[in-house]
Amino acid sequence: MGNDDHRRRKTPCGFCMSVFKWIPVLFITAVIAWSYYAYVVELCIRNSENGIGMVFMLLFYHISLTLFMWSYWRTIMTSVGQIPEQWRIPDEEVTRLFRADSPETQKRILNNFARNLPVTNRTMNGSVRFCEKCKIVKPDRAHHCSVCSCCVLKMDHHCPWVNNCVNFYNYKFFVLFLGYALVYCLYVAFTTLHDFVQFWKVGAYENNAQGQLNSGGMGRFHILFLFFIAIMFAISLVSLFGYHIYLVLVNRTTLESFRAPIFRVGGPDKNGYNLGRFANFCEVFGDDWQYWLLPVFSSRGDGYSFPTSSDQSRASATTTAVASPVQRYDAMGETASSSKKQQRPAAGRATGSGGRRPHHSSSQV
Ligand SMILES: [Zn+2]
Ligand SMILES: [Zn+2]
Question: What is the DSSP letter of 137?
Answer without folding.
Answer: E
